[in-house]
């Protein structure tokens, strides 16, 4: 071991490793001075096309696939890592500097780039090797050294941006060469790697059974690979690195060019963006050691993926380049934390004496293979489709496919997202968090409370900002992340309450915002809202069933992982639907002459609408019936799955089967709702629904086998689907024209908010203090109460069924709804036509 009097001990203990910190800063500054401005040079100086730029930006990554492992193996074989490191810095810096003299030839530019990156790219992995080797002997945290690379990268990019803005793009090459050569002055102060040193080393993240080679002999490259291949966890981790590297490749190659073009050719924004990115790396690297120890490698990678989702989602909708700057601070999560975690984990699996080779392999996958492929893919789409992900439809011909598969798929994914955790939260609360049934009832009530507040608030924000798409994306991303993060707060009821409430406040409005988007699309493209919304029920059923299968195999926490996947998947389809454009004229749902109404027409306020509705006693009584039946529905949705789960011996599969049966029953109920209501009338539909409630509650009260309840789940289409369609149609006829959304919101608040919340609390109380059978008996009391209110409604109801709506109004109405936060809307095409074929 080192002695206190040795030069090694004096340099590193007394000076606090400043040599390593400065070396990282200079090395990264040299790279950032040029690499962040290469795309600008290719486009505005050399005049290459975006496809050519994509190829050129891919070449460094292709070279990085081979070079780091190659030069790392050379260093290990000749047992002189310092010589190889200096040679790579000098030759690579010189070749990158002379690139500026080959702008006249695309072919020669390719040759110089390949050679330059083949020599320059190994410098990073060789520096990591030297630093990790030193830290293993003298102590210290890798992240606290590596963060100075972020400092250098950010300062180098910002200063170079200023220099380029004043002196031109060629200044980037000169500054890069100067900084890289300066790093040699600091490198000489760092003791070289000594092969065959018998001091031993400390694994940064020790794992059980990790191979360690003989400290004297050095395994060959193939021997080292053979040892590492046996570690399946390392191979899978490298696969994750590859996938994340694809996204990193697109961001690193085209983000700065996109911002540069979007800002009108302002080179300063490139420097500002990069300095924000690298500033975020400082806390990420500084606390990486503690974060990794606290959360583990897996959770760090999940955080990184969530950060990517946020960044990419915003880049998809931005119209102002400078508005993207705050999202650049997420770079610390997407790159810093992930890189530190992966580096330490892979280093722990490296045989002694071959660290250079294995670190080169890691670098080759992240900065080579993955980045190359990501750059090629990004270049192709940038060249052929442009930078924006979300299409801008300025006319009807620029909209969706004539079959409208986009809204259908989006409804399916949106409902599947809600089903992944919505039907399994009660199981999670009881078996993972250990909450009591009354606590579960409280938690199950929170989504209903949030559903009263969230959609109106974010809808008003969207209207005020006149940018519905940004609000929609924000609600999806924030809601998904908050719902996913709920699983980390099982240890605290208070924090779980906060997370559930915030998650629903953010995620709940996504459904009403989706309705707004689809109705806006259909009003221009044509089609029936109901035939799009129908696929929400399909997605809900399939999502629940598949989640049940996954949970039964992998555990309840997988429902949260699926929530994250499905939530962000909706963004991929949402980008295909044109955004809502404010200020356009629309077709009134019901006017005397069917004329178009612009924004100047007076629309009654919320309070005016409520005053008008309150004057109709039949509507108020009907809302009372909806409230009572909503209480029964609230007990069903909150505790039926938990009851079946417990009675079946904790078989999560039965939850998926039950929900699948329920939602499949919605399809015919909603599809034929209009014909049934016209045939038998609203009152008789409500009576049929009460018969369905009686049958279901009788079964749940008497059942001794959970699977015997499955056939009764098909009555859900009668108890909910027909009832909701009938009530919606009746209340819709009383709504002032142009305010249907407000009135439908009142109906939704009564059914899915107040009624469901109170039903959940009542059910939880009896489930906690008595048992499931008593809970169903008490719930059944709602049937006679509902029957009495329906009788009063039949007495007060006007003589004509639903004010005898004319055929044109029936064509406008979209009465297809499900319990999954869908809001009823009216619909008519601009040509006053119906679309039965879509």
Descriptive notes:
- The protein is mainly alpha-helical and 838 residues long.
- The chain has two domains: 11-193 and 210-384, Growth Hormone, Chain: A (Up-down Bundle); 396-591 and 608-826, Growth Hormone, Chain: A, CATH 1.20.1250.20.
- It is 72% helix and 1% strand.
- It is built from 34 helices and four strands.
- The strands form two sheets. Strands 1-2 form a two-stranded antiparallel sheet. A two-stranded antiparallel ribbon has the order 3-4.
- Helix 20 (468-485) packs antiparallel against helix 22 (509-525) and helix 29 packs antiparallel against helix 32 (772-780).
- The chain is elongated and about 95 Å long.
- The N and C termini lie far apart (78 Å).
- Mean pLDDT is 74; it is low at 1-15, 198-216, 389-399, 585-601 and 799-838.
Quick recap:
By secondary structure, the chain is an all-alpha fold. It has two domains: 358 residues, Growth Hormone, Chain: A (Up-down Bundle), CATH 1.20.1250.20; 415 residues, MFS general substrate transporter like domains (Growth Hormone, Chain: A, Up-down Bundle). It contains 34 helices and four strands.
């Amino acid at each position: 071991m080192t002695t206190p009097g040795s030069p090694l001990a004096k340099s590193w203990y007394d000076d606090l490793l400043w040599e390593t910190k400065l070396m990282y800063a200079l090395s990264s500054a040299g790279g950032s001075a040029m690499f962040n401005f290469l795309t600008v040079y290719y486009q505005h100086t050399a005049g290459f096309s975006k496809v050519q730029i994509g190829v050129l930006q891919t070449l460094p990554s292709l070279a990085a696939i081979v070079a780091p492992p190659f030069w790392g193996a050379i260093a290990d074989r000749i047992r002189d890592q310092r010589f190889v490191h200096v040679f790579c810095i000098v030759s690579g810096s010189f070749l990158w500097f002379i690139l500026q003299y080959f702008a006249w030839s695309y072919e020669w530019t390719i040759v110089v780039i390949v050679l330059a990156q083949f020599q320059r790219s190994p410098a990073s992995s060789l520096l990591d090797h030297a630093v990790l080797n030193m830290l293993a002997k003298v102590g210290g945290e890798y992240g606290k050294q590596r963060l100075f690379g972020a400092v250098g990268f950010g300062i180098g990019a910002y200063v170079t941006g200023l220099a380029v803005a004043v002196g031109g793009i060629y200044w980037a090459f000169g500054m890069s060469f100067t900084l890289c050569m300066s790093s040699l002055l600091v490198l000489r102060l760092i003791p070289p790697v000594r092969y065959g040193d018998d001091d031993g080393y400390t694994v940064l993240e020790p794992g059980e059974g990790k191979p360690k080679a003989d400290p004297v002999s050095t395994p060959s490259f193939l021997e080292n690979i053979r040892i590492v291949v046996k570690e399946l966890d390392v191979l899978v981790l490298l696969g994750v690195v590859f996938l994340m590297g694809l996204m990193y490749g697109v961001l690193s190659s085209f983000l700065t060019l996109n911002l540069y073009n979007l800002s009108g050719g302002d080179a300063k924004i490139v420097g500002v963006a990069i300095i924000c990115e690298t500033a975020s790396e400082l806390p990420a690297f500084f606390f990486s050691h503690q974060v990794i120890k606290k959360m583990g490698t897996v959770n760090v990678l999940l955080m990184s993926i969530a950060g990517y989702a946020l960044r990419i989602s915003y880049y998809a909708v931005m119209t102002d380049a400078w508005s993207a700057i705050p999202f650049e601070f997420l770079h610390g999560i997407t790159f810093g934390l992930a890189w530190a975690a992966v580096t330490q984990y892979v280093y722990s699996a490296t045989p002694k004496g071959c660290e250079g080779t294995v670190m080169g392999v890691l670098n080759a996958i992240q900065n080579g293979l993955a980045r190359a492929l990501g750059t090629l893919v990004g270049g192709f789409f940038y060249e052929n489709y442009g930078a924006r992900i979300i299409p801008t439809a300025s006319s009807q011909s620029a909209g969706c496919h004539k079959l409208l598969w986009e809204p259908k798929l989006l409804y399916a994914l949106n409902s599947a997202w809600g089903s992944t955790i919505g039907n399994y939260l009660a199981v999670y609360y009881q078996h993972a968090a250990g909450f009591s049934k009354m606590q579960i009832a409280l938690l199950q009530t929170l989504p209903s409370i949030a559903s009263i507040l969230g959609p109106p608030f974010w809808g008003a924000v969207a209207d005020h900002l006149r940018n519905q798409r940004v609000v929609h994306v924000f609600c999806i991303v924030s809601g998904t992340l908050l719902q996913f993060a709920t699983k980390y707060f099982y240890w605290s009821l208070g924090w779980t309450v906060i997370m559930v409430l915030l998650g629903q406040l953010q995620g709940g409005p996504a459904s009403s915002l989706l309705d707004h988007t689809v109705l806006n699309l259909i009003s221009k493209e044509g089609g029936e809202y109901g035939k799009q919304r129908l696929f929400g029920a399909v997605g809900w059923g399939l999502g629940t069933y598949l989640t049940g299968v996954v949970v039964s195999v992998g555990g309840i926490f997988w429902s949260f992982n699926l929530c994250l996947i499905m939530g962000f998947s909706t963004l991929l389809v949402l980008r295909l639907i044109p955004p809502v454009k404010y200020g356009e004229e629309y077709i009134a749902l019901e006017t005397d002459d069917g004329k178009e109404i612009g924004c100047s027409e007076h629309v009654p306020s919320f309070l005016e609408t409520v005053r008008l509705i309150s004057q109709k006693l039949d509507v108020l009584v009907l809302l009372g019936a909806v409230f009572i039946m909503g209480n029964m529905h609230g007990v069903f949705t909150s505790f039926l799955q938990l009851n079946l789960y417990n009675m079946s011996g904790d078989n999560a599969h039965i939850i998926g089967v039950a929900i699948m049966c329920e939602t499949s029953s919605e399809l015919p109920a909603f599809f034929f709702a209009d014909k049934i209501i016209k045939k038998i009338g609203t009152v008789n539909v409500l009576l049929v629904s009460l018969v369905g409630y009686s049958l279901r509650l009788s079964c749940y009260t008497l059942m001794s086998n959970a699977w015997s309840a499955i056939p009764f789940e098909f009555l859900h289409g009668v108890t909910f689907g027909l009832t909701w369609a009938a009530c919606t149609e009746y209340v819709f006829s009383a709504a002032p024209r142009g305010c249907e959304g407000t009135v439908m919101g009142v109906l939704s608040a009564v059914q899915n908010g107040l009624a469901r919340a109170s039903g959940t609390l009542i059910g939880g109380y009896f489930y906690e203090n008595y048992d499931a059978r008593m809970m169903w008996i008490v719930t059944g009391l709602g049937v006679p109460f509902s029957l009495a209110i329906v009788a009063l409604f039949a007495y007060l109801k006007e003589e004509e069924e639903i004010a005898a709506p004319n055929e044109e109004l029936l064509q406008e109405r979209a009465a297809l709804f499900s319990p999954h936060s869908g809001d009823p809307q009216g619909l008519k095409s601009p040509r006053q036509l119906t679309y039965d074929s879509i």
